[in-house]
Amino acid sequence: MKTKHSLKLYITAISALSLLALFGVFGVLHAPTKTYVQQLLNPAPRKVLSTAEGRLFDGRPIKVIKVVSSSGLFIEIYDFSKKTIHPLIDRIRLPDKNDGFINFNGAAVNLVLFDVDGDQQSEIIAPSFGSNLVAHMNVYTYNVETKTFELKNN
Fold this sequence. Notes:
Elements (H helix, E strand, L loop, with lengths): L1 H28 L1 H11 L5 E9 L5 E9 L2 E8 L8 E6 L4 E2 L2 E3 L2 E3 L2 E3 L8 E7 L5 E9 L4 E4 L3
Antiparallel strand pairs: 1-2, 2-3, 3-4, 5-9, 6-7, 8-9, 9-10, 10-11
Helix pairs in contact: 1-2
């Protein structure tokens, strides 16, 4: 009786593994399925364009990263007050998909932390270009109440 049960279990396991192998071969050979599985397992890769470091109003060190992916151009702000964990404070989608540069203190840069309005708080300056190559100067300031970065009004 025990041998019969073991045989059934063995046949079931071999059948399941064979079916899994068949799906695996189909996934590798069938291009649309292969692409779908790759995108599912590895979402759109992102490329780091630049980084800048500074401090929030309360003295916490932050790191700002400008990244581009297939879904757009982003600024990510991380809290660097702890040595091992760097939580994301905010993620901002820039209005344009094309990276831009400005001349800042004699250097071409695409991301700057600088106190624009003299309030002792650095703003994030992230230039970009629209689809018609219209330049935009995106300036973001930290809102203490909402604890997020907001587009600065002129």
